[in-house]
Every structure is written in structure tokens, then in C-alpha cells.
Amino acid sequence: MKINSDLKKRIKSFFLFFFFLLFFLYQINTPTAEAITMDKYKKEVITEELRLKVPAQYKEVWLKTEKEIWEPWLSSQVGFLGRQLFWDKEKEEALILVNWKSKKLWKSIPISEVNMVQEKFENNVKTALNLSENPFELIYEGELDKQR
Question: For labelling, which of 13, 23, 68, 137 has a CA lying 20 to 30 Å from the CA of 82?
Fold first, then answer.
């Protein structure tokens, strides 16, 4: 009889422990679970993130060419809300954040058009610096979704 009672207590303790463990793990993973469902943000502002290698000696040419080539083109695009340019002196890297009204509008821009503007940008840079290659290597491109 006593063995049966001990067994029932152990089973009850195990289930209580298991319940609290599951509850605790769910609480830890809640932000991750919410972050996975990004489809609900397709109609909201999205930020395009670009990182480039921009050597210090070419920084001014980069800024000038960004303003001459990319700024006018971006301003003509449906859904474009604005952009910010940053430069890290220590890493000699640029961060470009481009805000779009929605991912759908951003992604509806034909890649051929983007490539054409990029080629124009690179040609202007190479001419200005008398180089045969574009010195601004793309390090990373991605997107940032607004979180609630």
C-alpha cells in the first residue's frame, strides 16, 4: 500500500514538473515564435538594409555618387519613404537603411531596373576615382521588419 502511494506521489510530481517545464519553455520562446510569423507585416513599413565596404579615402565620392545616382532614382519609386546613410570610421563600412511603404511595393521593382541604376552608380565611381573596379564591396543585404 505504501509503495503504491509513493508511486502516485512520484507520478504526480513528475507531471507537475513537466507542466511547469513546458510552461517555462513556452515563455522563453514566445518572442521567437512571434518573430517567425512575418507575413502579417507585408502591408507595413519595411526597411532595406545594405552594408558596404567604403574605404576612408573614397568616402566623399561614395556620398556624392549616392546623392547623384541613387537618391533621384529612389525618390521616383512608388512606396519609397526615405533613407539614411551611416559610415563607420573604424570599420570603414557604410550602412544604408531604405524605408519602404510595404515589402510588396519594394519587391515589385524590376531587378533589371535596379541593376541598371547600380551599373550607372559603379561607372560614375570608377570614372571619378580613375579605377577599373568598383571599390564599394557589398557586404550584406537584408531587411528589417517592424516588430510590435
Answer: 137
